C-alpha cells in the first residue's frame, strides 16, 4: 500500500505516485461527455520502470488501466492509433524501461511527430547520482556523461524533459499536456524518469491534484490576413480546396463541405484528410497527389487559387511541388504558423473551423463560376469509372490489390474503420477505398511507418468504445512485408478482447519499393523474395500467415482466390475475436497514378535505364515551384 502523510496543504508521495495520481485527475469533453484525458497506459515493465512506476500504476488500475504490449514500438504505435481515432481529443500513455526498451519507442515517437498526433511517452533512465554507473543497458558517452538514450527522443518529440527532482513534474506535466493538445504544436511529449528520481518522496501541494478539465483551443485568425484571403479568393476563376488532416482534427468537415457547396469550389483530400468527406459527397473530387486521382490532380494543375486547409503540403500531396501551375496562388488555413506560410501563401493562422466560417462571412455573395464545379464533377465521374475498371474481377488466378480493396470495401460496414500505412496498399486504398462514413479511414503516410497498421488497429479498437468514436470494427490491410515486421499485437488483441480484422495481401516481398527501384533503372534487387539472396530456391518462399496468426489465438483463414474473399469477410465479421485473412496478390499490377515524385537518381551510371530515369527526373524538377 502506498503510504502518504497529509499535512495542511501537502501530500507526501514518490515522484511516480504523484505523476500517476495527477494523470488520473485530468479530464476532457468529447461530444458533450466528460471523459478521462488519459484513457490508459500501454506498458512493458523492465529495468527502470518496474519497481516504482509499476507500483504506482498497479494502485490505480481501475481508473487508469494498464495494457501490456509485446513490443515497445508497437504499443506506442497503438497509442498513436488511439489518438488518431479520437481525433486528438483523448490520449494514451506508453511506458518503457531504459536502454533498448526506450529506444524501441523512438520510431513510434517519429510517427506521432510527423503526423502531429499526441501521445505521452514515459521512459526509465539511469541514475542521476551516477553512483552505480554504468548500470545495465546504459549507453555511456565518454565526453558527456549527461547524455543517455533518452536524448534520442529530442529529435522526434514536441515536448521533452528529464525529471531530475520530484518537484519538477509540478511544472512539467501541465506543459506536456498543453503541447499535446495545442493544435499548432501537437505531437508526442516525452518524460525521462531516472530511477533514483522515481523513488524519491516529496511533499506535493494538494492543489496539484485538483481535477482539471482540458479542451483543445480554437485560435481565431488575424483579421488582416483574413481580409487578404477574401480579396485573393474573389479573383479566382478555378479555385480548389485541399482538405487535410487538420480539418478532421478541428471537426470542421461539415463546415468545409458547406462552404465548398455554397461557393462552388471542389474539394480534394490529402492522405491524412481522406475520410473527412464520404466518397460520393457532392463537393468531393477525389484524393490529390502521387497516390491520388486523375480528377484531383487535373483540378490542381488548372487551379488559380488553392485553399489549403489543415495540411502541411508534403510531397505526396503536391507531387513534389509539380502538381500546380507556377502562377497559382495559395491561401493556407492552418493552426500552425510553420505550415501556413509555405510557398508564399496568404497565411491564415487559426483553427480550421473558425477560419473557414469567418472566411465565408467575408465573401458576401461571391461564388466560383458554375462551369468550374460542373467540370470538377465530370472529372470525378471519369475517375470513378476508371476505378471500377481496375477493381472489376477478371479471370486472372492472382487478384490485384485493387480487386482485393474493392471486395473488402464492399464488405465493410458503414462505421468500420480502414487502417493502412506502408507498402503498396496505401496507394491502392488512397485511390480505391470509397469512404462510406466520415472519419472511418486511417492511412498513416506522414511517416509511412511499417508496423503501424496492426498496432494502430489495437488502439483504434480501444477508441471505438467511448464517446466520439464511430464504433464498428477496425479493418487492417497489410502486405506480407509489413506483417513480418510487426504482427505481435494480434496476440495483444486476443488477450485484451479488442477485435479487429486483418487482411494480409501476400505479394512475395516489398513489391511497391521494387516497383520504384525498377522504374528508376535498377534491376529487381533485395526487395521481392525471389530477388533476395536465398540458400535454396526450391523451398517455398511464402509464409503461412494464417497458421501463424492462429498460433497467436486469432481466428484465421487463407483465401485461394478472389471469390473466397467475400465469404471469408462475412465469417470474420461474425467472429468474436481478431480474425486474420490472407490472400496472394499480384506484385506488378497497380491502379495508375499521374503525379510526379522527386527522388534521388544516380547522376552517373553505366546502366542505360538509370541514365534514362535521371533525364526524366531532371524534367520533373524543371516543373517544380520554388518554395520561398
Automatic annotation (TrEMBL):
One of its GO terms (biological process) is L-valine biosynthetic process. Coiled coil: none annotated. Keywords: Thiamine pyrophosphate. The keyword Transferase does not apply. Residues 226-359 form the Thiamine pyrophosphate enzyme central domain. One of its GO terms (cellular component) is acetolactate synthase complex. GO terms for molecular function: acetolactate synthase activity; flavin adenine dinucleotide binding; hydrolase activity, acting on acid carbon-carbon bonds, in ketonic substances; magnesium ion binding; thiamine pyrophosphate binding. Pfam families: TPP_enzyme_C (PF02775), TPP_enzyme_M (PF00205), TPP_enzyme_N (PF02776). Residues 41-137 form the Thiamine pyrophosphate enzyme N-terminal TPP-binding domain. Residues 423-582 form the Thiamine pyrophosphate enzyme TPP-binding domain. Belongs to the TPP enzyme family. NCBIfam families: myo_inos_iolD. This is 3D-(3,5/4)-trihydroxycyclohexane-1,2-dione acylhydrolase (Decyclizing). It comes from Cypionkella aquatica.
Amino acid at each position: 500500500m502506498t503510504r502518504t502523510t497529509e499535512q495542511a496543504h501537502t501530500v507526501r508521495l514518490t515522484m511516480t505516485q504523484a505523476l500517476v495520481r495527477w494523470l488520473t485527475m485530468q479530464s476532457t469533453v468529447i461530444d458533450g461527455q466528460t471523459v478521462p484525458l488519459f484513457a490508459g497506459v500501454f506498458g512493458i515493465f523492465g529495468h527502470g520502470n518496474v519497481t516504482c512506476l509499476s507500483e504506482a500504476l498497479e494502485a490505480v488500475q481501475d481508473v487508469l488501466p494498464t495494457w501490456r504490449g509485446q513490443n515497445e514500438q508497437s504499443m506506442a504505435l497503438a497509442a498513436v492509433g488511439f489518438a488518431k481515432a479520437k481525433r486528438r481529443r483523448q490520449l494514451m500513455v506508453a511506458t518503457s524501461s531504459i536502454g533498448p526498451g526506450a529506444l524501441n519507442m523512438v520510431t513510434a515517437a517519429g510517427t506521432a511527430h510527423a503526423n502531429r498526433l499526441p501521445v505521452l511517452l514515459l521512459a526509465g533512465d539511469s541514475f542521476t547520482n551516477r553512483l552505480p554507473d554504468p548500470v545495465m543497458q546504459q549507453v555511456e558517452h565518454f565526453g558527456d556523461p549527461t547524455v543517455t538514450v533518452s536524448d534520442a527522443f529530442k529529435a522526434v518529440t514536441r515536448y521533452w524533459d528529464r525529471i531530475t527532482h520530484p518537484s519538477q513534474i509540478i511544472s512539467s506535466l501541465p506543459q506536456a499536456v498543453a503541447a499535446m493538445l495545442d493544435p499548432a504544436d501537437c505531437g508526442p511529449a516525452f518524460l525521462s524518469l531516472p530511477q533514483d528520481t522515481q523513488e524519491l518522496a516529496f511533499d506535493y501541494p494538494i492543489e496539484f491534484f485538483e481535477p482539471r478539465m482540458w479542451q483543445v483551443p480554437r485560435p481565431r485568425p488575424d483579421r488582416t490576413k483574413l481580409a487578404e484571403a477574401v480579396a485573393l479568393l474573389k479573383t479566382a476563376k478555378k479555385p480548389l480546396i485541399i482538405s487535410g488532416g487538420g480539418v478532421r482534427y478541428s471537426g470542421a468537415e461539415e463546415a468545409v463541405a458547406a462552404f465548398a457547396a455554397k461557393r462552388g469550389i471542389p474539394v480534394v483530400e490529402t492522405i491524412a484528410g481522406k475520410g473527412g468527406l464520404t466518397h460520393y459527397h457532392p463537393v468531393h473530387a477525389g484524393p490529390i497527389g502521387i497516390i491520388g486521382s486523375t480528377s484531383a490532380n487535373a483540378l490542381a494543375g488548372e487551379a488559380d487559387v488553392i485553399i489549403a486547409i489543415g495540411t502541411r503540403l508534403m510531397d505526396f500531396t503536391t507531387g513534389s511541388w509539380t502538381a500546380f501551375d507556377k502562377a497559382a496562388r495559395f491561401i493556407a488555413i492552418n493552426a500552425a504558423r510553420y505550415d501556413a506560410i509555405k510557398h508564399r501563401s496568404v497565411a491564415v493562422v487559426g483553427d480550421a473551423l473558425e477560419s473557414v466560417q469567418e472566411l465565408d462571412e467575408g465573401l458576401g455573395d461571391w461564388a466560383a463560376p458554375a462551369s468550374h464545379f460542373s467540370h470538377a464533377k465530370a472529372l470525378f465521374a471519369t475517375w470513378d469509372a476508371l476505378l471500377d475498371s481496375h477493381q472489376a474481377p477478371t479471370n486472372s488466378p492472382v487478384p490485384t490489390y485493387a480487386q482485393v480493396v474493392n471486395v473488402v470495401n464492399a464488405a465493410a460496414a458503414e462505421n468500420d474503420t480502414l487502417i493502412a500505412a506502408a507498402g503498396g496498399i496505401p496507394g491502392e486504398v488512397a485511390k480505391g477505398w470509397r469512404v462510406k462514413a466520415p472519419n472511418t479511414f486511417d492511412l498513416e503516410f506522414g511517416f509511412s511507418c511499417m508496423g503501424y497498421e496492426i498496432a494502430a488497429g489495437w488502439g483504434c479498437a480501444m477508441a471505438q468504445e467511448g464517446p466520439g468514436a464511430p464504433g464498428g470494427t477496425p479493418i487492417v490491410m497489410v502486405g506480407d512485408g509489413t506483417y513480418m515486421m510487426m504482427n505481435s499485437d494480434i496476440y495483444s488483441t486476443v488477450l485484451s478482447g479488442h477485435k479487429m480484422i486483418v487482411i494480409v495481401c501476400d505479394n512475395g516481398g516489398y513489391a511497391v519499393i521494387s516497383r520504384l527501384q525498377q522504374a528508376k533503372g535498377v534491376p529487381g534487387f533485395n526487395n521481392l523474395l525471389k530477388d533476395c539472396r536465398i540458400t535454396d530456391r526450391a523451398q517455398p518462399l511464402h509464409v503461412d500467415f494464417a497458421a501463424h496468426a492462429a498460433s497467436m489465438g486469432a481466428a484465421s483463414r487463407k483465401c485461394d482466390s478472389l471469390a473466397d474473399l467475400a465469404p471469408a469477410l462475412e465469417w470474420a465479421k461474425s467472429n468474436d475475436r481478431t480474425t486474420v485473412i490472407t490472400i496472394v496478390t499480384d506484385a506488378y499490377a497497380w491502379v495508375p497514378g499521374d503525379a510526379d515524385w522527386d527522388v534521388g537518381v544516380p547522376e552517373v551510371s553505366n546502366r542505360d535505364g538509370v541514365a534514362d530515369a535521371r533525364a526524366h527526373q531532371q524534367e520533373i524538377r524543371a516543373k517544380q515551384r520554388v518554395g520561398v
